[in-house]
Amino acid sequence: MSALPLAVIFAIASAAAYAAGAVAQERLAAEADHEPVLALLRRARWWLAVGLNAAGGGLHVAALAYGPLSLVQPLGVLTLVLALPMGAAMVGRRVSTGHWRGAGLTVAGLVVLLLLVAPATGAEALGSGDAGLLAVVAAATVAALMVAARLAKAAMARSLLYATASGIAFAVASALTQTVALRAAEDGVRALFSPVALALAVMAVGGLLLAQVAYRDSGLGAPLATVTLANPMASAVIGMALLGERFAGGAAGAALALTAATAASWGVVLLAHPAPVPAAEEEPVGEPDTAEEREPVLVS
């Protein structure tokens, strides 16, 4: 089997592991919404979510070893599509027609994007200067989004800002993972203790914690949709700005890619809409919803 099909297989398996991890995180957030995020380290379900995300990360590394960032990252959108039935099964509900429609649009847009990828050079590592610049710019961007989230009054706005920061952190972690993996093939274990590997660890852990905070204010759909969309978009920017990756077809290909991305984005929007709640499960009238007033706490 050639390299590109292997990259796709590993990337889809990674998306499945990440989907299971996201569902575990969201259920934990729903059950422990008043606990500081770092207090979740005492819960077994948190470590299950960490294990699933670690498995997703390992499979992602394998995918990046066989294919370029712009091919592997769009497949991360499947995380949302796979999490949809998983999350519904956890609460004993059926997936709504609107959510399936969103999943269809997301997959259709993703397939077109994959057909336009022109991976002429295969996997490629960032240079030391580019890796350092990426880490600094990403840290500043994530910090700015966190500040904006802390200042936001609406719960949904906070959730989406934290989720955007998480998606960017995961995208940068992916780019740095590809770099560390390729360097390790040449330099051995030394590459695992380099500044790039340290930046990778910070971004990966930061993305996980930011996602957990995002789930507190709005459930699974909206934050996971935002993380899933922000991740490949940021990765595309990284790949094209620093790795020389391009879409096939020149200007026409770019226009078609934009159309496909728009369709996939609209699918994500549909998936982010809350599922209808059966009448028997609706909250009693007069019971306050404190999500608008609750501020996520990172430490005790």
UniProtKB/TrEMBL annotation:
The chain crosses the membrane at residues 6-25, 46-66, 72-91, 103-121, 133-152, 159-180, 192-211, 223-244, 250-272. Residues 291-300 have a biased composition (Basic and acidic residues). The keyword Transmembrane helix applies. Residues 280-290 have a biased composition (Acidic residues). InterPro entries: EmrE-like. Residues 279-300 are annotated as: Disordered. Keywords: Membrane, Transmembrane, Transmembrane helix. This is Integral membrane protein. It comes from Phytohabitans rumicis.
